[in-house]
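User: Peptidase M28, uncultured Acidobacteriota bacterium:
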Amino acid sequence: MTRIVAVIVSLSVFGYPRGESSPRMSPEPYMRVNPIVQQIVAAISEERIAENLKKLESFETRHTLSDPTHPTRGIGAARTWIFEQLRSYSPRLQVSFDTHFVKKQGQRLVRDVELRNVVAVLPGTRQPERRIVICAHYDSLAIVRGPDGQVDWTQTEVFAPGVTDNGSGTAAVLELARVLSQYEFEKTLVFIAFAGEEQGLVGSTLYAQRARQEGQIIEAVLNNDIIGTEVAGDGASANRVVWVFSEDPADSPSRQLARYVKRVGELYVPAMRVELIFRQDRFGRGGDHIPFNHEGYAAVRLTTPSENFAHQHSATDTFANASPAYTTLVTRINAAVAASLALAPKPPVVATERGMPLLGRGRSGYAAHLRWRHENPEPDLAGYVVVMRATTAPDWEREIFVGPVNEYVLEGVSIDAVTFGVKAVDREGNESLVAAYVNPPRPRATFQTDEPRARP
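Assistant: Predicted structure for Peptidase M28:
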């Protein structure tokens, strides 16, 4: 076991030497951009995304309960076209329907339905068991209200073009499958168009539950939902910003994925700003990443900050009211993140098998002693990066490249006032997700007592 001790004097609680106004970043190669990832990002085509949006609009409705037998209209025609598009991109893509027979239930599932997710798998070369999921829902909805003002959920055949919600996410998934399938990656990439989102996240729930039952290792889920508008209903525009939602707590796997999206997305798409929203989804609403959260997977939602509620779930959610240029920028962020993760080493393990963090106070009792495990390290592994931040900071504030070791000591740094993490990096600069040291909750104590009886 290789051990490194860093002796740092006059540290603040952040671990910065006195007098420094900002962290000193290491010149190690992990800070470089990967030219392969740059090529992938550049290959994303706005023209193709626009074509996909127009085609999805042409089905008139993609309601989950619309007629599945019509050759050019409805959910059946749409899923067949998505299937054929995915199959045309590369012979290496394994395309299939993930089919479920769902019973009538609740308000929105007004009859039994055969639900089909469309799945395309690009197998990895070195770590095929580890999966990166890129997804969106392809079903659409137009709300019809009765004379009493209540939603009539039986109206399943009305015009529901759903270009922004969520043709935009579907078009992104298709374009990502087209471009990424021309490359080889260490990990497996999975592209999914879910059905049944508008009926309560049905398709994604059934997929995520089966993935957990099968013991699938899903390292990240990038859910794209409503990435097609750049002007909100009140006229506000944020056409160079994308929101990324991630569930609490502060160092959940999903929160680490969100931070990764910001770091890598802004590195490869500098025209865009990734704004982290520390909430599972928009207030009182949901998306297809949530079932993966429920199954313990790291999953985030990418969405526009410029929603136009007048067009959502209506006949006016059309191509004329969408922005292919904005969808393209968000798709490029997806491409950078998915490619980087699929090329990167697996994250180190920073806890024991019982879940206790491998973090202590060192021999002096006043240090931060970090340890980690990395079984079967990749042959191109360059080493590890220790990351640090104040407990109240939203993102990592300092990085230290420590090389190919599996422990590191920061003398004079309190583990009580700083949050730590470790990530792996290969010689091409591809970084894993950060594995954060999480303090497990202290169990609630119960004590047996023998209280004296009350005196009469």
